[in-house]
Amino acid sequence: MPPIPPSATVTLARASVALLTGSLLVSAYMTVALRSSVDPVANVVSDYVFYRPGGSLFVLAVLLLVLSGAALLAGMTGLGIPRPRSVLAFFGLWQAGLLLCAVFPTNRTAGSSTLPGEIHRLAGATFLTSLPIAGWKLATALRSDPHWGVVAGRIRRYAGLGMLTAAVFGVCQLRLIAPGLPGTSLLPNSAIQGLLERFALGAEVALLLALAVSVARAAR
Q1: Is 53:63 a contact under the CB 8 Å cutoff?
Q2: Is 54 exposed, middle or buried (0-12, 13-18, 19+ CB in 10 A)?
């Protein structure tokens, strides 16, 4: 594969930011347009698919996010940023998890259990955990490089925040899935699961944005 010129790398990084911004704008529109049907504090983002035009908008937001990640990865390749295979593997899991969430709708109610809903739940857990792990491993690979040391520290902080917020949302889901388990009453209340999920998603967006901006600056 021929090397990617610096100008193309900058374009890819900017495209990543633009696609990421587009995904955020679509999500913001869904939040406002469907505020009477979906409570952003109590309901997860995937609940928008049950209300028009939430289904198509949710898929669009996910696709824009996946494309943003793909453009970012191509830009990183153009810069020759060292990435262990594990980074690429977790990055691929993140994209696969997002796409599966777009294909398989979540369970409509907390008490129901369907095959598509369980696939969606597993895919959601996959993408919420995979990107922070990929970011952490990337930061570890970059921290010894004098040109990327500062960026590595920033990536590590966002990755750590992503792990933390994903874990909090995960234990909230545990209380929702298995309320009879001992100790679940001490877990975060499922009534705020939507807010917790949005914190986890926000941490992922911050990580992607930090990477894209760093790639664009390095390619100039």
Answers
A1: no
A2: buried
pLDDT value, residue 79:
79
- Render pLDDT for 70-119 as a digit per residue (tens, 0 to 9): 999 998 888 778 778 999 999 999 999 999 999 999 988 766 789 999 99
The pair of three-digit structure tokens given for residue 19, joined into one six-digit string: 């696609």
Q: Are 9 and 215 in contact (CB under 8 A)?
A: yes
Query: What's the pTM?
Result: 0.90
| SS3 category, 181 | coil
C-beta separation of 13 from 218 below 8 A:
no
Q: How far is CA 72 from the centre of its chain?
A: 14
Provide the token pair at 101. 């969430």
Give me 178's structure tokens: 């298995």
Smallest CA-to-CA distance from 134 within 62, 196, 85 is with 85
Identify the segments of the chain with pLDDT beneath 70: 1-6, 110-111, 175-190
* Encoded amino acid at 12, one letter: L
Q: Are 194 and 43 in contact (CB under 8 A)?
A: yes
Tokens at 3, concatenated: 């090397």
Three-state secondary-structure class, residue 215 = helix
Give the three-class secondary structure for 188.
coil
Contact indicator for 16, 71 with CB cutoff of 8 Å: yes
Helix axes 193-219, 115-142, angle to 10 degrees: 40
CB 196 within 8 A of CB 171: no
